[in-house]
């Protein structure tokens, strides 16, 4: 009985007891967490990923500061030589010897080449022979004249004594006067022959090509055996020159300034020139002259600029960028901070103000800027940017502060 009662008690349901533990609970929680994590990753992939915007950039350049000179206009041009000559002979002939090479320094009057002088020397020999013949003839006539004058004097005495007839005396005088005229003509012929000899000697000298001024040879155009001529004779076997010489002391810069800004340029204006080959070398210069003629095709005016520094690194036809500078002003305590020059395409309007985007470590930083003068295709920015900042050109509307950017390979340039 007791055993039966105990069995019945074990079968009774206790409604106040806690529910028994289930073995599936931990796996359900783990599955829910994984689903949430996957959803978060998918959401970031679809909505949270920051795609880089491809942009073009340029570098801001400092243009002035307290107590210095500020650029009022920038332009580009080339180094040119005021004295440059392609040297040739004055006569047509065959080259016998060439004594120059590219890069060689020559002095004024130095022999550069010689031509075959056979023809010129033959003319010289002929002229010398003609001069000798004229002088011999003059000597012969002079001797005859001396005899005729003596005969005329003797007959003059005899005719006074009535020992000879007057007709004989007159004949002697006529012969004397004829010889005097022949002597004058002979002397003139001798003088002409002497002049012809001088011309022939000049012809021989013309076969020697000399440097017209001191300079550097930049081109060698002829070789021994070639025919050269001061005038082109046509065909491919006739040269017109021996070589080209440049006076390196005559180098200057020529730039084309847009006619809309030529009013900012004045003679004797200070200029800073920078060669494309040496971007860190600032060469002091000044305006020589403004050519009083405009190019209607390009709407530009040519300006000549003198380089105040002479250096072997400066050679003709080098590309150069020049900055026309204002005169330096005394430093002031309340002077504004230095400004920078950026392309006009770098400044845009956003939210009613002018801004620029600066690229730093792959991110775009939006900066409010204060814009000053317009200098050609560039703008002067007095506040918001510093020299050396990399600015975005034509910022896309989708570009925001802190947005990720990628610089195009062909977009980086200096203003």
TrEMBL record:
Region annotated Disordered, chain positions: 384-415
SUPFAM superfamilies in the cross-refs: HlyD-like secretion proteins (SSF111369)
Residues annotated as domain CusB-like beta-barrel: 253-325
Record-level GO cellular component terms: efflux pump complex
UniProt superkingdom: Bacteria
Occurrences of domain YknX-like C-terminal permuted SH3-like (ranges): 341-407
Protein name: Acriflavin resistance protein
Lineage: Bacteria, Pseudomonadati, Pseudomonadota, Gammaproteobacteria, Lysobacterales
């Amino acid at each position: 009985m007791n055993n039966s009662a105990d069995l019945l008690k074990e079968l009774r349901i206790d409604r106040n007891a806690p529910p028994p533990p289930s073995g599936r609970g931990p796996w359900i929680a783990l599955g829910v967490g994984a689903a949430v994590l996957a959803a978060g990753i998918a959401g970031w992939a679809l909505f949270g990923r920051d795609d880089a915007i491809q942009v073009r950039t340029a570098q801001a350049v400092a243009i002035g500061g307290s107590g210095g000179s500020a650029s009022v206009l920038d332009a580009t041009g080339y180094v040119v030589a005021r004295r440059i000559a392609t040297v040739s002979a004055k006569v047509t002939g065959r080259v016998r010897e060439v004594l120059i090479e590219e890069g060689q320094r020559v002095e004024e009057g130095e022999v550069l080449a010689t031509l075959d002088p056979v023809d010129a020397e033959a003319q010289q020999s002929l002229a010398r022979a003609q001069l000798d013949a004229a002088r011999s003839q003059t000597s012969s006539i002079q001797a005859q004249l001396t005899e005729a004058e003596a005969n005329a004097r003797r007959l003059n005495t005899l005719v006074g004594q009535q020992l000879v007839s007057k007709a004989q005396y007159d004949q002697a005088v006529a012969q004397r006067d004829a010889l005097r005229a022949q002597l004058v003509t002979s002397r003139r012929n001798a003088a002409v022959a002497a002049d012809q000899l001088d011309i022939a000697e000049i012809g021989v000298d013309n076969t020697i090509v000399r440097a017209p001024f001191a300079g550097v040879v930049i081109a060698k155009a002829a070789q021994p055996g070639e025919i050269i001529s001061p005038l082109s004779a046509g065909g491919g076997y006739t040269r017109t020159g021996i070589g080209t010489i440049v006076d390196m002391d005559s180098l200057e810069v020529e730039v084309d300034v847009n006619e809309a800004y030529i009013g900012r340029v004045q003679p004797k204006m200070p200029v800073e020139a920078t060669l494309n080959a040496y971007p860190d070398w600032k060469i002091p210069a000044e305006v020589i002259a403004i050519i009083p003629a405009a190019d209607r095709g390009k709407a530009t005016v040519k300006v000549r600029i003198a380089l105040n520094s002479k250096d072997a690194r400066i050679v003709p036809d080098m590309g150069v960028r020049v900055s026309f500078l204002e005169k330096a002003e005394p430093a002031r305590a309340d002077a504004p901070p230095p400004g920078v020059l950026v392309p006009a395409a770098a400044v845009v309007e956003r939210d009613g103000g002018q801004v620029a985007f600066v690229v730093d470590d792959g991110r775009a930083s939006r900066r409010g800027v204060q814009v000053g003068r317009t200098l050609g295709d560039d703008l002067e920015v007095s506040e918001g940017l510093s020299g050396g900042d990399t600015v975005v050109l034509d910022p896309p509307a989708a570009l925001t502060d802190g947005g990720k950017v990628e610089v195009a390979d062909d977009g980086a340039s200096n203003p």
